[in-house]
Amino acid sequence: MIYLILLLGFGLRLISLNQSFWLDETIQVWASKLSWNDFWIEFLPKDFNPPLYYLITRWWIRLFGDGELAVRMTSVLMGVGVIFLTWKIAKRVSRNINNVTIVGLLVGSGPLLIYYSQEARAYMLATFTVLLTTLLFINYLSKENWLNSILLGLGVVLMLMSHYLTILILPVFIGFLIFKKGFDKTMMAVTLILVIFGISYLPIFRSQLKVGTGVESTAPVWSKVIGQANLKSGLLLPVKFVIGRISFQPQWLYGVIAFILMSIFWGSALLSLKENFKYKWLFFGLLAFPPTIGFLISFWLPVFSYFRFVFCLPFLYLLIGLSPINDKLKYFLVIINLILSGIYLFNPQFYRENWKELARWLNEQETPPVYVINQVKFPLEHYYDGKINKITPKQRFIDESMNRYRVYLVSYGLPIFDPEDKIRQELKIMNYDLRRGESFRQVGIEVWEK
Asked: Is 306 buried (19+), middle (13-18) or exposed (0-12) by CB count in 10 A?
C-alpha cells in the first residue's frame, strides 16, 4: 500500500510544477551558481540560511540544468521522502495498519506539504531531515548504543544545516529523553558531534545572526513581511497547516470554513492524547513547541511565518492518524486534503509570482530597458533577455543623456524597499507620467512616458 501512496504523492507534486519561479527561488538558483569562494565568503555570511540546500541545488543544477522542473525536482523527491518517513514512524508506534495507511495518505495529500514540495527552497529538505532525525531518535530510545547515538548526532547536524529553526526540535528531544530515561553515556557521542559542528560553523552563523537582527533597523517594512510576531501571524499557522495557501472571497465565508476545518483537524489530533501509544507526547511536542517558541523569538528576531514551521506539520497528521476518532472521519479528512490540494493545483490564481510571463510580455515589447529595484532583480536576470537596470531609492536612476521617452519600471518590491516612494517622485521630477500598468500574478510593471 505504501508504494501506491508514494506514487499518489509523487503524481500530485508534479502537477503545475513548471509554473514560474518566484523571487526567492531565483535567488536560490543564482546563489547555487556562484563560485565556491563567492558563495562561502561573500554570499553565505550575509544570508540567513544554512548551506545544505544551496549545496544540493548547486550539484543538481550542474547535472540537470536550471529550469523549473529540474530545479524543483529536489523538493519533489524530498516531499515523497517525507511521506515515506512519516509512514515509517507511524508503523514504528502503531500496529493498526489502517491507521498507518491513513497517516501516509494525509501526508501525501496535505495541501501545504504539496505546495512546498513544489518550491525550490529548503522547506521540504528541513521537513525530511526533521523526520529522519525523529526516526533516528526513536531508534536510539529503542536501543541505546554507540552506533544509534552517532547516527542521531549526524541526523541533528543535517537537520540544523537544512533550516536554523529546526534547532527548536532539540529541546523536545532532550525533554522527552530526560523524562523517559535520563542521559545515557552514549549520548556523549551526540554531544561531541554537536560541539565540533558548532565550533566549526560559529563564525558564519555569527555573521548571519548580525544580519538577521539588523533587519528591523535597516528595512523595517521588510522585517514585518518576513516574520514579525503578531496576532494575525499566530492565528495563520493552525489555519494554513490545514487549508494550505488558498484563499477566497468573501472573507467572512473563508474565515468560517477555515475555522470549521481547523477545529476538525486540530481537534482530531488533540484527541490522540487520550490514546495509549508510546510517543504521543513526543509528537505533540514536535508539533507545538517549535512554533510556540518561534513566535516568542520573533519579538526579537523576525522569523515567525507559518511556512517556516512546515517541518512540524507531519506530526499533526501523525496524531490525527493515530487518534481514536472513527476511521470514516479519518478518510473524510483525506478527501478534504485532496479537495484543498486540488483547488491549489488546478487554479493558476494560487500559483507563484509570474515573472516568466512578465519576461515574455517584455520581450514582445522588443526587449526594452527595464528598471527594477536592486533587491528583487534576480527573477528578471533569470528570465528576461533585455537590459536590466538595477536601481535604489538613493540614486538618480535615469541617465538623461540617453533621452528616453519611455521607462518600464517594475513596481514589485517598491512598497518594501522604497516606502517613501522616492523612485516615482524622481520620475515625476524628470517629467515622466505614468501611462499604464500591467500585472502578472503579484508582479506589476509600470510604463512611464514623457
From this structure: buried
Task: List the grid coordinates of 1.
Answer: 500500500
Q: Which three cell numbers stand for residue 233?
A: 501571524
What is the identity of the amino acid at 398? I
Instruction: For residue 266, give the C-alpha cell.
Output: 486540530
Q: Give the β-pairing of 370-373 and 388-391.
A: parallel
Same domain for 104 and 189, yes or no, is: yes
Tell me how far apart the alpha carbons of residues 314 and 135 are, in angstroms, rounded to a whole number. 13
Q: Where is the domain boundary, 313, 335, 350?
A: 350
My answer on whether 384 and 339 are in the same domain is no
Structural domain containing residue 16 = 2-350
- Sheet containing strand 433-439, edge to edge, reads 388-391, 370-373, 406-410, 444-449, 433-439
Instruction: Give 247-283 as a DSSP string.
Output: --SSHHHHHHHHHHHHHHHHHHHHHGGGS--TTHHHH
Note the pLDDT of residue 137: 94
Residue 21 has pLDDT above 70, yes or no: yes
* Measured distance CA(99)–CA(109) in Å, rounded: 15
Q: How far apart are CA 423 and CA 267, in angstroms?
A: 50
Q: Number of folded domains in the chain? A: 2
Query: pLDDT, tens digit, for every residue of 209-249?
Result: 776 665 554 455 444 555 566 778 888 999 999 999 998 88
- Tell me the average pLDDT of the chain: 89
Cα–Cα distance measured from residue 422 to residue 145, given in angstroms and rounded to the nearest whole number? 63
Highest mean pLDDT, choosing among 29-43, 262-276, 329-343? 329-343
Are 331 and 384 members of one domain? Answer: no
For residues 308 and 54, give the distance between their C-alpha atoms in angstroms, rounded to a whole number: 17
Run of H or E including 327: helix 327-345
Considering the domain architecture, whether residues 213 and 362 belong to the same structural domain is answered as no
For position 195, what pLDDT does the model report?
A: 81
Pairing between β-strand 388-391 and β-strand 433-439 as defined by DSSP bridges: unpaired
Interhelix angle 187-213/146-160, rounded to 10 degrees, is 10
pLDDT the model gives residue 401: 44
Same domain for 417 and 292? no
Residues 115 and 200 in one domain: yes
CA distance 378 to 419: 21
Can you read off the three cell numbers belonging to residue 271?
484527541
pLDDT of residue 148: 85
| Statement to judge: residues 127 and 224 lie in one domain | yes
Q: Are residues 121 and 252 in the same domain?
A: yes
Does pTM surpass 0.85?
Answer: yes
- Are the beta carbons of 412 and 443 closer than 8 angstroms? yes
